[in-house]
Every structure is written in C-alpha cells, then in structure tokens.
Amino acid sequence: MTRALKHAVCVQVDFAGRDGALQTREGLVTYRAGDAILTGPSGERWPVSRARFDATYEPADSAVGPNWYCKRPLVVDARQAIVEERVHLRRGEGVLQARPGDWVVTAPDGGQWVVEQDIFAQTYRLLDDGD
Questions:
Q1: In 3D, which of 42, 47, 44 has the Cα closest to residue 14?
Q2: φ, ψ for residue 54 (rounded to 5)?
Q3: How far apart are CA 68 and CA 73, in angstroms?
Q4: Partner of 30 at 20 to 30 A CA spacing, among 14, 65, 90, 91?
Q5: Sign of the CA dihedral running 79, 84, 45, 120
Q6: Nearest to residue 89, comparing CAs of 112, 64, 56, 114?
Q7: Looking at the DSSP assignment, which residues form a beta bridge with residue 105?
Q8: Nearest C-alpha neighbor of 114 from the set 24, 32, 3
C-alpha cells in the first residue's frame, strides 16, 4: 500500500432529512437522517455519516458560500485496483465497485472507499517515504 494525503478540498454539503440511498459513481450507498450528502469538484455525490463528517470536515470560509465545508488534511493508505473488485462499506451502507485504475482508500480508522482515478489525481497526493 501507498500512503497518500487527502487535500483540504472544499465541497458543497446538504444534510439528509430522512434515511435514503444515493447512487454514487461506484455503487449504491445508504445513509441515515442527519448524514451529510457531499458534492465534489467533478459533480460527484456521496454520503458521509454525521459522526465521520463532523470529525473530518470544517466549515469553509464564509467567502466560499453557504453550505460549503473543507476536508481536513488526512493521511490514508491507498492502492490502485488492478482488476474489478468490490469494497464493502461499514455499517452495511453498501458495496462499491472499483474498476481497474481506481483507488481503494483506507482511513486510519479502517474505513474504506473507492475513488475514481481522475478524482484521486485532483484530490490526493501520493507521499514519499520521507513525507
């Protein structure tokens, strides 16, 4: 596995009014009332549990606009998928499909997700052993 740094990317956020499911680029993901629904730099949308959101995002500068939050920088483990594979989300929230070239990311707390190759290039930086 390779270490990578998640940039402090700002995203637009809405909070779910009720339980539901969202078709992401990588698969169908369920969410609960109060969870954050994020919209990324390429228009991609995905849910994040409220507890994880509160721990990893902070409100953006008011000049950016209402409902914008920035991801706190985070060092993760990442590996590129060589063949298609499935990644099971915690809490039974769904199963994501990684295609060859996509990145499977693992957070320090063990949570995993899939990031398309082009989005990974925009939002992460691979770290050298010296970083």
A1: 47
A2: -60, -30
A3: 16
A4: 65
A5: positive
A6: 112
A7: 78, 113
A8: 24
Most confident of 8-12, 18-22, 37-41, 71-75: 18-22
The whole-model pTM stands at 0.80
SS3 label, residue 85: strand
pLDDT of residue 130: 66
Smallest CA-to-CA distance from 28 within 130, 86, 78, 96 is with 96
Query: Residue 69 above 70 pLDDT?
Result: yes
* Adjacency order of strands within the sheet including 124-126: 112-115, 103-106, 74-80, 2-6, 124-126
Measured at the CA of 125, the angle between CA 104 and CA 92, to 5 degrees, comes to: 25
Distance CA 76, CA 29 (A): 21
pLDDT for position 2: 95
